[in-house]
Amino acid sequence: MMERSLKLLFLSGFFWILVAIPQLSAQKFGYIDSEFLLNKHPDYKLIQDELAALSEEWKKEAQKLEQEIKEMYSSLKAEEVLLTEEMYQEKLAAIKDREKQAVAFNNRVFGLNGQYYQKQQELMQPLQSKIFDAIDKVCKRFNLAVLFDKASGPLMIYTDPRHDYSEFVLEQLGIDN
């Protein structure tokens, strides 16, 4: 009885191994380089240029605020001997208020989830969707189970160029390399 149970257990285990091995070997893996894809896409350069111009405009505005604060401090220092304590404190409070406004501006524009980040997301989203759709089509065309992104971090220590599907994604996007 015990011997029969062991044989049955062995045969069922063997059966599951035979069923699983073809499925495991059928899994295809590949990778892409999203940085390479973005740099090859003509829209990416336009987005980068627009973001750079916007960033430059906001930086000038921030520098203007900083310069205004410096001038306010200089003016206060020059007038210091002529001002009463109350007048001095009022001007100092105005400067501190302007500093708070400058910090608020920088946080609102360049901070975490600031206007710059939101604009970047807004501009990049359509391009990322196009690339993702092309990746999806390439994965389905080549029956890929998993596709890694070489540019997304230190996960990939070695990559065999045979498994790089970046060129196929560019082809799917209609971009000549």
TrEMBL record:
Query: Which ranges of the sequence are coiled-coil?
Result: 48-82
SUPFAM superfamilies tied to this protein: OmpH-like (SSF111384)
Tell me if Acetylation is a UniProt keyword of this record. no
Keywords (alphabetical) are: Coiled coil, Signal
**Which Pfam family is an annotated match for this chain, by its short name?**
OmpH
Q: Which Gene3D superfamilies match?
A: Skp domain (3.30.910.20)
Q: Report which superkingdom the organism of origin falls in.
A: Bacteria
Q: Which InterPro entries match?
A: Chaperone_Skp, Skp_dom_sf
Into which family does the record put it? Belongs to the Skp family.
Q: Which PANTHER family match?
A: CHAPERONE PROTEIN SKP (PTHR35089:SF1)
Name listed for the protein in its UniProt record: OmpH family outer membrane protein
